Amino acid sequence: MESQVQLFLDEGAVAAVVQIRWPGGEWSRAYGVRDLESRTQAQPTDRVAVASVTKTMTAIAVLKLVDDHLIGLDDPVNDVIPGFTSTLKPPGPITVRQLLSHTSGMPEVNDALPKDADIRSVFSQTLTMERGLKLAGTLPWTSASVGSFKYSNTNYLALGLLVQTLRHKPYVQVMQEEVFDPLGLRHTSLDHVDPHEAGLLHGYVTLRGERIDTTDIPFADGSPAGGAVSTMEDLNLLMAGLFQGRAVSAASLHEMKTSPGFSPYGLGLWEHADGCSKESRHEGLGAFDDYQTVAVSSGDGQYQAAMTVTTPPMPTGLEDPSTQDKRDLLHGQIESTLNEALDRICKPAS
């Protein structure tokens, strides 16, 4: 693990934080610096924007709606989510399951954003759930796309509105009461971060050769698709609580683990092979331009591993499309490193 992290740092990563948990043990380390201005040493307890790992959190809140019989997994949401039909113009009934599994065919909201390499103008405004649906509604949604896997952040913006509507409370409040507090996620929030907050990892990109600190951008604030700020300990607590049966019912957990068959994705979770068990591991994956985060758990909730790496400062894909390949490679290396570590310490299932 330390050798692999050193390779990340040698290739320009600003920081890496990792925690691994197994029955009776835990290993946490931090490498690199919190920010490139003060160069304060990163700590295992540092918080970071975890991007789409947020989707796993949102999925838990949605499955709790199902457990509470407020809606069914295969119930249509067209007339439940405010503005869903008029704003997005779906080609037919769209179910909760389709939104959770990215099989609704819904257009990707990011495809409707301006293609300006200077992301500061776009990211200076919060992408609210309502605004996200309106932007996605400017793109075509065809009936042919419904039923096949097509990853779209818009699905989870819609799910956030579903949670908010059926709980009659703001989405952020529901997440605190229904997910963060019950699972003991004391360092997780959906609020805008203060860039001067102690114990915060700063992210960076470059624009025309100039390094930009991207920590203080409100674009994803409160987003059900990618707005959470957390620690690696909290991510492991999230996954342990979920797979040990303390988050949703056994029936809902089974549904979350089950892929519709089009990709290794269930309901808010990615699937990965487990070197110790016939049952798959499951993952929350988060990727921003400035951070790459992976959280892994064994299917029985006995083993977890989470890592975030502050991406080397480089242009966004809008300025240099080749940089996305570098980010994807880093993300894949984090995922394989964590799973290799779990393969080495887990005990084969009897």
Q: What does the model show?
A:
The chain has helices at 2-10, 53-67, 84-88, 96-100, 120-123, 129-136, 153-167, 171-180, 232-243, 250-257, 322-345; strands at residues 15-22, 25-32, 48-49, 204-207, 210-213, 229-230, 270-272, 281-287, 291-297, 304-310. The model has no long low-confidence stretch (mean pLDDT 96). The chain is of the alpha+beta class and 350 residues long. Strand 1 (15-22) and strand 2 (25-32) form a beta hairpin.
List unreliable stretches of 5+ residues.
Answer: none
How would you classify the helix and strand content by structural class? alpha+beta
The global form is globular
Mean pLDDT over the full residue set = 96
Radius of gyration: 19 Å
What is the number of E strands? 10
What is the rounded distance between the termini?
27 Å
Question: Oligomer, anyone?
Answer: single chain
What would the keywords be for this entry?
10 strands; 6-stranded antiparallel sheet; 350 residues; single chain; two-stranded antiparallel ribbon; alpha+beta; globular; 33% helix
Secondary-structure blueprint of this entry?
Layout lengths: L1 H9 L4 E8 L2 E8 L15 E2 L3 H15 L16 H5 L7 H5 L19 H4 L5 H8 L16 H15 L3 H10 L23 E4 L2 E4 L15 E2 L1 H12 L6 H8 L12 E3 L8 E7 L3 E7 L6 E7 L11 H24 L5
Antiparallel strand pairs: 1-2, 1-10, 3-6, 4-5, 7-8, 8-9, 9-10
